[in-house]
User: What shape does this take?
Amino acid sequence: MDRVAEILAEAAAEVVEPRFRALATGEVLEKAPGEVVTIADREAEAIIERRLRELLPIPVVGEEAVAADPSLARALHSEPAVWLVDPVDGTSNFVAGRPEYAVMCSLVRTGQTVASWIWQPATATAYRAELGAGAWRDDVRLTRAPAPADAGKLTGILKSRFLDPDHHRRLEANSSAFGEVSPGRSAAGIEYPDVVEGRFDFILYWRTLPWDHAPGSLLLTEAGGVAARLDGRPYRPEAPGGEDGLLVAADPATWELTRAVLMGD
Assistant: This one.
């Protein structure tokens, strides 16, 4: 567990942090409509992949490698164990000079996340979780306190970018029942720890790319929270293009209440 955390911090120090607010012309590219990638993403992924393979020689499913060759994501289902890597989560923030970005990794065995790591370079904060062994911020074990039982006192995030118009209208209207709902911080590696630490009580995600959600979902569930599909099935990482919709919440009661309010049940 410690060595993987070191690998993420080392890669960030070598090629990510030196480029924060210092990206040169040509070091930011559009990899898909509305989505950017930087030289820091690609170089960090290469470093992390090489060092993870030295630690445990299994396939590495990295965000940027899959962008170039989508077939690599099949390893999530075809291999008994894989590393999942997001070299710079929150790339849009990184490009804009905002400090809300993270470097993340997960270990997935037989389709289930069994360990995860989140490194937040701006604050030098390390989060990690191990299935059945708990969630940690640096050396502090994390336990999420129950959220308020009143929907009007809950605070959350509604990620609406990838919602179809009908879902968007319904969810936006229903979300008015909560105390406060924001569009989020544009980085799952910041948002999941925010729920664990009590800054938010729930998040509704729609698109669920595995490298974005495997690390934080394990961190949250090991701290006592819930990360589940809208029908209640626990989250498991899937290749891009799979199922949409993921609701994460501080505790089981908050998950049920939030789902009922958002869905209009």
Summary: The longest helix spans residues 39-55. The radius of gyration is 18 Å.
